[in-house]
Amino acid sequence: MAIEHFSTLKQHLSSQIIGQEALVENLLIALLANGHLIVEGPPGLAKTRAVNALAQGLEADFHRIQFTPDLLPADLTGTDIYRPEDGTFVFQPGPLFQNLVLADEINRAPAKVQSALLEAMAEGQITVGRKTYNLPELFLVMATQNPIEQEGTYPLPEAQLDRFLMHIEIGYPDAESELAILKLNRGEALTSNANHGDKTTEKKENSLRALSQSEIFSAREQVLNIHMAPSIENYIVDLIMATRQPEKYDDKLASWLAYGASPRATIALDRCARARAWLHNRDFVSPADIQAVFHNALRHRILLSYQAEAEGITSNQVLDHILTLVAVA
User: Fold this and answer.
1) What is the distance between the alpha carbons of residues 319 and 54, in angstroms, rounded to a whole number?
2) CB 67 within 8 A of CB 104
3) Residue 74 within any structural domain of the chain
4) Tens digits of per-residue pLDDT, 253-275?
């Protein structure tokens, strides 16, 4: 069964990315929900390692792009190369034509580059000159942002952030996880030294069977067929409406929100909750599934008011308050 294979993949990811269980689960949710995610956290928290480990567990290509201020859209999409021998132009695909793409520090690239990536995410295709090229059917982007350093960055506008299925915030692991990371790193270093110079031993030593793309598409179909009761659908809509019409719920909430979530948020809640229920081996969606993905699906889709910012209120606090106000149907 597909769920058993995904459980094995989840165990593999958890063994490689220690202390970041939420990141592991949300990576799989994004894969099952056919969406992209943006991960925000300090440097050194295994963001790159997470996507690399996911790629190892799939029959998929992986490419990491380091976003810098001098990056050009063609560095992502590819470009037409002139062939002087016959006077023709041949399209040379860029890194976006891989299955898994890590957009490292996406806010360091200028707006043109960001828009080229987001067009690919939204449309599943890129345009070079007058020609349009389809991207692979399996296409997942994980973008990262460093919340510490803001100098020389180009923040993504709200309309562009809305294209991401989820916005995940990660923090430092606890002491027990930190010790496990230390031991894992030491073991990997010893293995690397033992295998130094022997190319044949650099292949994966574990027995993890890579998931085929057909299995991923089959799992996505199963996710879409997960049962969702009308009351749960109404609960999703009520949560979204609370962000758009906060005055109907609470004066405090109304003072905190300038703009509410778009219909993409409704779709994201539906798809992510279904994927989470499927990962937990259930054939129905519960209110707990909605609440578990609520923050990741909405924290980048609401715009706080000046009053909220002046009071030091965060998006997470606003979303926490919404969950207390909206009753489960």
Assistant:
1) 29
2) yes
3) yes
4) 999 999 999 999 999 999 999 99
